[in-house]
Amino acid sequence: MLKAAFPGSFDPPTSGHINIIHRVASIFDELLVVVAENKQKKYLFSAEERASMIRELIREKKNVSVVVCDCLVVDFLKKMDIKLLIRGVRGLEDFSYEFELSMMNRTLDPEIETIFMTTDPEYFVIRSSSIKELASFNGDLHGMVPPIVAKALKEKYSDS
Question: What's the helix, strand, coil split of the chain in %, to 5?
Answer without folding.
Answer: 45, 20, 35
